[in-house]
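Sequence in, structure out. First:
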Amino acid sequence: MRHLITFVVAMAVFCSSTLAADRTLNIAATEFPPYYGKDLENNGFLTEIIREAFERVGYDIEIAFLPWKRAMEGTKQGKYDGLYSVWRRPEREEWSVFSDALPANELGFYKQKSKNITFESFEDLKPYTIGVVRGYALPPGFEEAGLKTVLANNDEINLRKLHLGRLDLVLIDRIMGKYIIDSKLPEAASELEWLDPPVHIDIQHLVISKKITDHNVILEDFNRGLAAMKADGTLKAIMAKNGF
């Protein structure tokens, strides 16, 4: 009887994997180096984690790298099966289901080293002009503080403006900010610095569009693959290989 149960379970897993393997998911993403990006090795370490998690449960994925707004709208409409990475917000739960936790973002500010800027609350930042990226979710309390902000299409533009003195602060992920400065603005490396403390730590997620009929099945499968990677140390190994 035990052998029969084992056989049935094994066949169920095999059939599930076979069905999944016959399907390729179209996943949207944007440029968010070093986490993910079209021209990064393996499309970035977060892409490597997501691809591996899907492969473990029998899915192939094709990634469309798009501007953030197009990626999000396309996923809302079901043009793409899923999107990464996404911070959990109530309005986003209306059109998507969220995966288990992926590596977190530390959100905060970069500034010019020559400027003596400190803060304990957002209220302390009212004298300053802050660069933010159009379409990005803002940390809790930021928008309500009524701060002076300037919109840009991407983080690199904001950091260049900061280096030129056109902004006082840039709201950005800490690791991403360091990556952009080191790889694209090395002349600014000695002049720009991270301002402690981070204002928010947000967990990243893969989301699956609710427009996709079996969105819950896809999500459960992905979470299974991700859990296996966490359990056997593969996720940590991928991050360590990339210096995190």
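Second:
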Amino acid sequence: MQENGLISKKDNTIMRKSANSFQVQVENFLLQKMESGEWSVGQKIMSERELSAELNVSRTTVRNAVLALTSRGYFERMIGQGTFIKRKPVREAGSSVSKGTLGYVVCKEKGKRLPIASEAFYFDVFSGIEEEVSRSGRHTLFTYLDDYDPDEIEQFNRFLDKVDGLVIEEARNTEFLERVVRDEIPAVLLAPTLVYEKLDLVSMDLASGVWKAVEYLRELGHEKIGIVNGPLHRDSARIRFDAWKQAIRAKGADISAELIDGNEDWSVDAGYRSMLRLLDRNPEMTAVFCANDLLAIGALSAMHERSLRVPDDLSIVGFDDTELARHAVPPLTTMRIFSRDMARSAARRVMERIDNGNLPAVRMEYPIELVVRKSCKEVNEGR
């Protein structure tokens, strides 16, 4: 139905609890209207204000969605006149929306999920993928997936209908990856994740990063170095913990069980609780290695609650070098993961596979660097 040459309004289609962002849902809404033939080439679409009211999202979300599709050649914006449909999406057989999109998939149980904007590492990866794919006129869709849950895997087929290829992070289930290979889906694994020889892997040397952190603290004279772990059922946390134990032993520091805590999740709250327990058990502890920056931020909060100063009373090292680390008080010494560079490499490799599916599987490994800020100091003599 059309009114006065404009695209007519339809019912609200935005899902508040979808894994996809509001912007992505608005883009899919617009693409589906064009693809179905309801909206025709050359027609003027509704204004930002009208779409915002129709879909019950902000005008900024609508504007960003329209700009994204304009950059991909679907719309043409004419100053003083509005936005017009320039071309119709090309739908492949069996697809529900147009292609030209990469999927970013984080394999995680339902109870452990947070909005991607709250997950600093995932958000950095998403941004890096989007930076790379936008150069080729593509876009990125994000979803969580429990790769052991048959119902979620079945629902995942609808996500696959929307994308050309996948960047998969933290995959755990070999059977799921075998299915990806069997269905000839262009895909790259992004570490830390399960290694599967038939798929490309973009990885990082987690163990060497932990060793560098321990070496730095030992150079400052610390002997009682605690650890706040991430969830040890995850490979990424186990690798960090095992490397910490090995480095502590190799450097001749105390490796007492009383210096070890954490096995919950990667959150600020988990870091806060773990740090309080460590402080209760270890009055002589002089430094703590935290398995990620969120845990370290929680540790800083626990220190503040106990009226202890960082680094005067205790030194803290994080891991990831997120923006939170740079703006913490004090700014956090941490291990820099080149997450955006890794994401861009993964996105480029997926696009190469889309163009040429016969490429051999490769492994790309990135280093991890120490970033020294204000949360560590040399141990005072006699302490």
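Remark: Residues 1-11, 91-98 have pLDDT under 50 and may be disordered.
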